[in-house]
């Protein structure tokens, strides 16, 4: 079966991290986000991948090429993001037979995708405490009976996960009308399929919609924790690697370093001497962690550098970010309240007690900068030596 993976979006809520890298290509453990979705589909039995691309399409194409994990890859271009039904419509000419559709910015457990593909047609659901912010699926037994967007009075607590298997006939039903928010929504296609077919509700046991920066952190927490210990790089005899630590070939871990797994140190990265890495941490390609630096539960994108005597916790550093010596990230409030972050101009809760900073590509801090929890440094932002930063820059 073909898997159509929707990856045309920029990810405006993911700014500043999506400033130069489209959201589907942001790092999650050893691969970009969308590659995990693609792999779940392939491991579940998909035999062809159709990637719907648009924003920064070339970055996605370059990564996947014409073949990925042993199956052919095709591309459909969606020039303008006009909705999920419109995205599938862009892929229509490639479709041959029943087809799966997955959101390219969602992580799914592979077993669920397997069940989805073997129950044609089907919709993936995920049990949530408060479904009012999701598309909500109604069921009778295993059969889907309805789908409603963000209802005030949700009929069930089954959220729509954006994972479907449709019959080929659904290709004729993709020309849906425009919704109230001005998009062509796949939920309208789902409604039509429900009315014509018995559609199985498949419960997804683990699911993550990666829309905002702390969800990228969560995605890394999920995928890094699945790695098994594998040490191939140049590791000093005086370093301690504890648990599921992966050090790729071409990475360097110097004397006096302690790494508590799960952690992933990628090729070309350098850690230490005397650094401490813990939590679920990704030190991506060519990133540098200096002398006596502590990194906890964070993502350092390719080329990011954290200078000596610094602390970085629960944070994401974009590409080529440079934290000057003595930069300290605070990741916990005195009142223990959940930390807020500004998404598209509104303050929203991250639902995390521990959350540090999100630094856009090439942001630089002066020495001894202090950063308060939930801060955003935009791409290329700078701070002065000794600056105490309490507002987004
Ligand atoms: P969204 O999360 O709604 O959009 P986005 O990824 O661009 O993020 P933001 O809202 O922060 O700007 O999209 C869900 C998935 O569907 C995601 O994988 C992108 C994809 N998509 C398309 O491919 N084309 C579209 O027109 C839309 C609306 C989404």
UniProtKB/TrEMBL annotation:
Pathway it works in: Nucleotide-sugar biosynthesis; UDP-N-acetyl-alpha-D-glucosamine biosynthesis; UDP-N-acetyl-alpha-D-glucosamine from N-acetyl-alpha-D-glucosamine 1-phosphate: step 1/1; Nucleotide-sugar biosynthesis; UDP-N-acetyl-alpha-D-glucosamine biosynthesis; N-acetyl-alpha-D-glucosamine 1-phosphate from alpha-D-glucosamine 6-phosphate (route II): step 2/2
Residues in Nucleotidyl transferase domain copies: 3-221
Pfam families noted in UniProt: GMPPB_C (PF25087), NTP_transferase (PF00483)
InterPro entries noted in UniProt: Bifunctiontional_GlmU_arc-type, GlmU-like, GMPPB_C, NTP_transferase_dom, Nucleotide-diphossugar_trans, Trimer_LpxA-like_sf
One Gene Ontology term of the molecular function aspect: glucosamine-1-phosphate N-acetyltransferase activity
All copies of domain Mannose-1-phosphate guanyltransferase C-terminal, residue ranges: 259-350
Top EC class of this enzyme: transferase
Keyword rRNA processing: no
Keywords: Acyltransferase, Multifunctional enzyme, Nucleotidyltransferase, Transferase
Highest taxon in the source lineage: Archaea
Enzyme Commission identifier(s): 2.3.1.157, 2.7.7.23
Reaction catalysis annotation: alpha-D-glucosamine 1-phosphate + acetyl-CoA = N-acetyl-alpha-D-glucosamine 1-phosphate + CoA + H(+); N-acetyl-alpha-D-glucosamine 1-phosphate + UTP + H(+) = UDP-N-acetyl-alpha-D-glucosamine + diphosphate
Gene3D superfamilies: Hexapeptide repeat proteins, Spore Coat Polysaccharide Biosynthesis Protein SpsA, Chain A
UniProt record similarity statement: In the N-terminal section; belongs to the N-acetylglucosamine-1-phosphate uridyltransferase family. In the C-terminal section; belongs to the transferase hexapeptide repeat family.
Name assigned to this protein: Bifunctional protein GlmU
Species: Haladaptatus litoreus
């Amino acid at each position: 079966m073909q898997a159509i993976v929707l990856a045309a979006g920029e990810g405006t809520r993911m700014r500043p991290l999506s400033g130069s890298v489209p959201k589907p290509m942001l790092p999650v453990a050893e691969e970009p986000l969308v590659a995990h979705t693609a792999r779940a589909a392939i491991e579940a039995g998909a035999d062809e991948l159709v990637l719907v691309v648009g924003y920064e399409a070339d970055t996605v194409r370059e990564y996947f090429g014409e073949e990925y994990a042993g199956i052919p890859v095709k591309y459909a271009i969606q020039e303008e993001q006009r909705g999920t039904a419109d995205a599938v419509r862009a892929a229509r000419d490639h479709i041959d037979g029943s087809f799966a559709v997955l959101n390219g910015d969602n992580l799914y457990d592979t077993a669920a995708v397997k069940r989805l593909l073997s129950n044609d047609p089907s919709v993936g659901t995920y049990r949530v405490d408060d479904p009012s912010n999701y598309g909500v699926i109604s069921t009778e037994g295993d059969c889907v009976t309805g789908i409603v967007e963000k209802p005030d009075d949700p009929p069930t607590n089954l959220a729509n996960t954006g994972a479907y298997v449709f019959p080929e006939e659904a290709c004729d039903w993709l020309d849906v009308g425009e919704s109230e928010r001005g998009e062509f929504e796949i939920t309208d296609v789902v409604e039509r399929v429900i009315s014509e077919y018995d559609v199985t509700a498949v419960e997804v046991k683990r699911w993550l919609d990666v829309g905002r920066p702390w969800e990228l952190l969560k995605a890394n927490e999920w995928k890094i924790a699945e790695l098994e210990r594998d040490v191939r790089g140049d590791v000093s005899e005086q370093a301690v690697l504890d648990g599921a630590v992966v050090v790729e070939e071409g990475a360097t871990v110097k004397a006096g370093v302690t790494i508590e797994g799960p952690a992933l140190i990628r090729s070309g990265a350098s850690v230490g001497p005397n650094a401490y890495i813990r939590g679920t941490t990704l030190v991506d390609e060519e990133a540098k962690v200096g002398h006596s630096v502590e990194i906890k539960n964070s993502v350092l994108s390719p080329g990011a550098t954290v200078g000596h005597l610094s602390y970085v916790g629960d944070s994401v550093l974009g590409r080529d970010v440079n934290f000057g010596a003595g930069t300290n990230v605070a990741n916990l409030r005195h009142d223990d309240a959940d930390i807020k972050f500004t998404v598209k101009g509104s303050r929203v809760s991250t639902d995390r007690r521990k959350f540090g900073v999100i630094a856009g590509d090439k942001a630089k801090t002066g020495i001894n900068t202090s950063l308060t929890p939930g801060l955003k440094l935009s791409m290329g932002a700078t701070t002065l030596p000794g600056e105490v930063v309490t507002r987004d820059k």
